[in-house]
């Protein structure tokens, strides 16, 4: 008895998702498999991937260009939230998962499928992000995860595929597991599983080694409107072009590498290497512009919101009521976050060196120590007395 009649499978063209096609049909009695590959700027040849899916037994192979949606509806909201998981990782890979989940659910409805499937294993974060995202969007649809249940090693998986006529992949000389999209790359496995092993230069693609970066600094002016990145060096750009161009200019200067031990959703630690040049610089620049345009209490309160926001994305809760509520708060805070931030790129560093906004609440006449100082210094003594009074009373009662 099959688990489903027609299934839409999230498809990358790799070993696991390709073997999922015959496995679903042979072992689980699925009649028809439709594959869906999302073009998120990963640079893969999606045409050959389509052909591979059809050769492997799919009745239809879909490729969806979702780059603009990915940046506009997923990356940009995360930038407005300054979302960093564990205060470091800008969620470049995690942000793709709720979008793919939505594409799966939409395709299942369009093609009359009664289930969706993915090739995630039982140790990773992506299974959580897919499963929870899909159930949030359609709580009635079945979610199948063959690779989580089949218990095969990679060698056994390849052998299983060969039994059903799948081409054996060329043996890769690289032991690394790499995921790429427009926002960045994540690299893990192989020698990197030893936390003391320095990442070899060969794993990087988007960022240059410091020795190969220009010997002169470069400046880039990033324009924001209501918290959304809109321009580079005064030129208004569409979301995909802005990310692509900023990736190139920042990566050229060796900016955007992360090497971290992170806490996975399933409770284990993993060593991850990330390249996310544009995303890291945009978050840093956006946060700086907020410091110019938001009041201190809003800025401080938003920091706690940002940490929660990053956790929600990492943990697969993009389509959750808390995330929706936080979006409303963030929207309100961004009404005046419009302006330009100047970033200096040099030898692996990206430093904010200037910022301006028509909505700035920085007052030079109050901040200056020069003769134009408008601050009433006489008011300070009374303020300090009132501000420090609780501490003074506490001290007199406890030290007396």
Explain what you see:
The strands form three sheets. A five-stranded parallel β-sheet has the order 3-2-1-4-5, with helices on both faces. It has a five-stranded antiparallel β-sheet with strand order 10-9-8-13-14. Strands 6-7-12-11 form a four-stranded antiparallel β-sheet. The termini are far apart. It folds into two domains: 6-163, HUPs (Rossmann fold, 3-Layer(aba) Sandwich), CATH 3.40.50.620; 177-356, Argininosuccinate synthetase, chain A, domain 2. It has helices spanning 15-26, 46-55, 67-80, 96-111, 126-137, 146-149, 154-163, 239-252, 277-293, 296-314, 321-333, 364-367, 379-398, and strands at residues 6-10, 32-39, 60-65, 115-117, 142-144, 177-181, 184-188, 218-225, 228-232, 235-236, 257-263, 269-275, 339-346, 349-356. By secondary structure, it is of the alpha/beta class. Its EC number is 6.3.4.5.
